[in-house]
């Protein structure tokens, strides 16, 4: 049997290259949250890796849930670890306080405690979040490493402060992955989710879609209270911090509210993203 010469097959290979070009893989920079937020982000990251994309996970050295020393995970994606001025136990204690209250105490607490306790926890998380922001954005060596890596896109859990600001500084598009927020605030403010307080309970309330008058009243007050607290937090903390980094009149908390061009909010059900380019 006589095989054709390579020269005669050259036009066929050229045509195959035109009609079936090689797929380009992307390089993702991931900002994971903690605990269940990390589990959600990890599922997305592993699917990206399965599709031959490259993923780098930026994680603080005090992370209580991301095991960046895992050889099994390191074989799939890269970990870029940076130092922060707080310990793993500091973060773990705050998160345990939040989990204990939201899962076991909130539904039996007074209405005042349902607002004051989360506000106290939010203040502690905000302080740690700002320290983590400084550890990223004011670390010139880290930012230079991120620029040199030539990422294509940032994937972010919005519970992580300043990941969106890092994306802005690097000039990269941003994808948000949100599991849920306290009081369903981000789902309502960011995702424009239709959540009537008469039959959709706010997280973490243990109500069903058939609520009594009292439960509906508590649900409405929870929606209102968490919205007010979130707006106050965004305006008094996030806005001022972003202004310190970017300067007056620059990107502020709007990015946290997902109104920035190129921002897409991954939610469930009939919720949609806003600010899509």
TrEMBL record:
InterPro entries: UDP-glycosyltransferase, UDP_glucos_trans. Belongs to the UDP-glycosyltransferase family. GO terms for molecular function: glucuronosyltransferase activity. The keyword NAD does not apply. This is Uncharacterized protein. Gene3D superfamilies: Glycogen Phosphorylase B. Residues 1-25 form the signal peptide. Keywords: Glycosyltransferase, Signal, Transferase. The keyword Signal applies.
